[in-house]
Design a protein that fits this description.
This protein has 2 domains: about 5-205 and about 385-400, Glycogen Phosphorylase B (Rossmann fold); about 225-380, Glycogen Phosphorylase B (Rossmann fold). The protein is built from 15 helices and 13 strands. It has helices spanning about 5-30, 50-60, 80-85, 95-100, 105-120, 135-140, 160, 175-190, 235-250, 280-290, 305-315, 325-330, 345-360, 365-380, 385-400; strands at about 40-45, 65-70, 90-95, 125-130, 145-150, 170-175, 200, 225-230, 255-260, 275, 295, 315-320, 335-340.
């Protein structure tokens, strides 16, 4: 499908949707918002996830009591709802209207309601879409006075979903130049106009650094290994479980811990080699980081990941596949060790096993990696810089539109 066909598909869809938009606009007119809003955020979820954590950081940096956050998909838990509340933004979970396939007409009507509310703002406002499908669907119905910005975390399914709506966004933000380059190659195949690429920019994610520098004993037994992540195909937690079995059978005294609800994807015969903790709070997670000697990331794809930064800041060495910006931060053999993500899983398991055994036998190297990671994190990962970059992005885009 070419870019022009994507646009034609959007046109046909709009012919069907238009009557529902009119109904929604009428409802918005009869029930206007009670105040003016500077920023309208659209995020899918507030449940556990790295993307959701980044969204809280963005809202923290740029939000306030003159901003509103719409959650458009049904969250699996309320992991980050507290963090979203502390941003000062008004929160509205509209998922019961926009994420119910049995009541799909309500989704279409809400496109009219929400876009109607936005278009009635007296002052110029910003719409920020953090990979919300609903956010993309309403973008054509928002007037040109409003500035639309989108965040895309990685090359994923949204990379195609967003193609018909690219023209409505003044800025397309991602987390690295690598992600921009991947999209440029993809969109070249679909004949997307090159001028759209000029709207791309990147802001690398950052983290809240530990208030106190972590002091870790790298020579204690057992060796502490940690996996942090959700249960999904690309995360491949079963690889870590197999490594746990291998090092146990080799005679290494190790504790392999999993933070994240992944036990169901781990074969039962590997459970005895693993310690599963399910979804944990930030306080609990920091305790795991503080004990961990090594963080293992076996993913096939990542945009960040934040767990890399969090573990490095707390003195863990890294063993990872070469995903996201891992090769940018993890200088092989200095801050950690990484493998090629596209190797057969059996080969990756063997490589990670050997690397764990190497670091267990050379605790001085393990200590050197951990201490270098702490220093590197303090110099490069401070959330304060992330806040400044997003604040400047919002300020500049509004000033440019006003001039």
């Amino acid at each position: 499908m070419t870019y022009s066909l994507f646009l034609f598909k959007r046109f046909v869809e709009h012919l069907f949707v238009y009557p529902f938009i009119l109904v929604g606009r009428a409802i918005a007119y009869l029930n206007p918002l009670k105040k003016e809003y500077r920023v309208f955020f659209f995020f899918p979820f507030y449940h556990t996830g790295g993307a959701e954590k980044v969204h809280t950081h963005i809202a923290e940096a740029t939000g306030g009591n003159d901003c509103i956050i719409y959650f458009t998909r049904t969250s699996l838990n309320d992991r980050y709802i507290k963090e979203f509340k502390t941003t000062g933004c008004q929160l509205k979970d509209i998922s019961k209207f926009t994420d119910n396939k049995w009541q799909f007409p309500l989704n279409l009507i809400y496109r009219g309601i929400i876009s109607g509310h936005i278009n009635r703002q007296a002052l110029r406002s910003i719409v920020f879409n953090g990979q919300s499908n609903f956010g993309y669907k309403i973008s054509p119905w928002i007037n040109k006075k409003t500035v639309q910005i989108e965040l895309i975390h990685a090359l994923n399914t949204f990379s195609l979903i967003r193609i018909p709506y690219l023209e409505f966004y003044k800025k397309n933000v991602t987390v690295s130049q690598e992600i921009i380059d991947k999209h440029a190659r993809l969109y070249k195949r679909y004949n997307v106009p090159e001028k759209i690429f000029e709207n791309f920019t990147w802001i690398r994610s950052k983290i809240d650094l530990p208030e106190i520098k972590v002091s870790k004993d790298y020579f204690t037994k057992p060796l502490h290994l940690l996996y942090v992540g959700r249960d999904s195909i690309e995360k491949r937690p079963a690889i870590v479980a197999q490594v746990a079995k291998n090092i146990n059978l080799s005679g290494i005294n190790a504790l392999v811990e999993f933070a994240g609800d992944v036990s169901r994807s781990i074969p039962n015969d590997l459970h005895s080699y693993c310690s599963f903790h399910g979804d944990v709070s930030d306080v609990e997670l920091n305790q795991f980081y503080n004990k961990a000697h090594i963080l293992i990331i076996p993913s096939t794809t990542e945009s960040g990941p934040l767990v890399l930064m969090e573990a490095m800041a707390r003195g863990a060495a890294i063993i990872s596949t070469d995903v996201g910006y891992v090769p940018t931060f993890v200088k092989d053999g200095v801050f950690g060790i990484y493998s090629k993500k596209n190797l057969p899983e059996t080969k990756i398991i063997d490589e990670i096993t050997q690397k764990v055994m190497q670091l267990d036998s050379d605790r001085n190297l393990l200590k050197e990696m951990g201490e270098k990671n702490i220093e590197f994190a303090l110099e490069n990962f401070d959330i304060v810089q992330f806040h400044k970059e997003y604040q400047l992005l919002f300020e500049n885009i509004l000033n440019n539109e006003a001039s």
